[in-house]
Write a structure and sequence with these properties.
Elements: E1 2-6, H1 10-21, E2 25-29, E3 42-44, E4 47-49, H2 62-71, E5 77-81, E6 85-88, E7 91-94, H3 106-117, H4 128-136, H5 138-153, H6 174-182, E8 195-199, H7 205-212, E9 216-218, E10 226-228, E11 233-235, E12 238-241, E13 243-246, H8 253-256, H9 261-268, E14 271-283, E15 289-291, E16 301-303, E17 318-326, E18 352-364, H10 369-381, E19 386-388, H11 400-414
Parallel strand pairs: 1-2, 1-13, 2-9, 6-15, 13-19
Antiparallel strand pairs: 3-4, 5-8, 6-7, 10-11, 11-12, 14-17, 14-18, 15-16, 16-17
Helix pairs in contact: 1-11, 4-5
The protein binds flavin-adenine dinucleotide (FAD).
Residues 6-12, 29-32, 37-39, 52-57, 222-223, 247-249, 252, 275, 361-362, 390-392, 398-401, 403 line the site of flavin-adenine dinucleotide.
Amino acid sequence: MKIAVLGAGVSGLTAARLLKDKGHEVTVYEKESTPGGLARTRYTQGYLYDPHGGHIFNSKHPEVVDWVFSVLPKEKWQFTERNAKVFFNGTYVSYPFELSLCELDIDDAVECVHDFILSKEGPEPTNFRDWLTWNFGKAIADAYMIPYNEKIWAYPLEDMETEWMQGKMPLPTKKEMIKSMLLKNPKERKMPHSTFYYPIDGGIQSMVNAIAQGLTIKYDAPISSIEKSDKGWRINGEGEFDRVISTIPLPELPQVMELPENICAHIKDLKFNSLTTMLFSCPKTDITWLYVPSHDYRSHRVGYQSTLTPNYGPSKEEGCGALEIIGKQFDIAPDFADRKDILPEELGFKKVIDSEFTKYAYVIHDKNYRKNVTAIRSYFENDKTFKILGRWGTWNYKNMDLCMLDAMNLVKELS
Ligand SMILES: Cc1cc2nc3c(=O)[nH]c(=O)nc-3n(C[C@H](O)[C@H](O)[C@H](O)COP(=O)(O)OP(=O)(O)OC[C@H]3O[C@@H](n4cnc5c(N)ncnc54)[C@H](O)[C@@H]3O)c2cc1C
């Protein structure tokens, strides 16, 4: 078959590579000049930078892990134990916060444990704000869960649903929490995804480039038209493709193809947020990520690129991290050192190295989410020749491994 894949992110590249391996004639269309989508890396002043957020790899799906290591061999990856922290009241508390209460000031810890033990009473709430309190108890919710989620979503939590949280957020039981208080060795307080891989050289771009190897990719080729003819699909006025797989964000489709009015209305109602990341130099640390729940600071998270691989930059003495802020915030670049409202001064951030804006960062699961995506997905399911795939192609909060798994399943379906 002749197949067009729209978008050279992890989803599009995985599908294209698997289809090519099965003997199909595949052309990938990508609007940027390099592959990777959100999973990109570039070097600035010799520093490694994943501009759309640090991208680490882990998966509980063995077929995905095996496939990734077949594309970029395991010896090319650094294996790391997560050492994430929450910056809370001026101290570094281990992640997950709710299993590290023994690191808090005794009065705070007592409140958190007390409320956690009383949690999960009554019916499970369906809005995200109440659900956080119901699950973790009032003290943990007020101190950490609610402010952190208010920052990362920048959307009213009471207007978000909760179904999508299943499997995304660690949800320890009361017994697990009590055990964590009694354990002497903090290393035993582990949750899923406590280890991960990151390429030793070249950042996550190394994985992406390895997947893209040998594929026919048209770069600098934004999709301008998708038309159906008697012989198949024409993309940007060319080709006669038997199948199309679209991984580009759903809101782009009504601009380039004919869709029923009701589907366009559902697409228009989809919610998402955007992100600014900024790479800065700082003292070297062994922290992998730092969560910053306090509303005193605009950034909600810092990913330390210098802990992902030893080959992160020009200096072995100095580290580097990328802060994340929701929204378009380029104004912070020039006078970063003086902006104490961005990150706690204690982190010792020094000079700004690079920054980037990401329009499509997080899918927001608002109250209309389910209704909108069900209508959109069932419309495309009825079409056997045009398939949607990926985080933005299907409007689903998925990490790289689940995007790869979906691509694998779609390829099986098409074969
Ligand atoms: C801050 C952040 C941190 C993350 N960290 C991790 C992590 O640590 N580990 C992990 O597994 N996952 C992580 N993810 C999730 C991960 O980024 C996604 O699961 C994955 O990259 C999605 O791939 P995709 O191909 O579906 O979408 P994208 O990466 O968005 O790819 C879509 C592609 O389509 C192209 N495109 C868009 N519009 C057009 C157009 N009109 N014409 C042509 N091409 C177009 C884009 O340029 C892009 O290349 C993170 C996401 C974010 C936002």
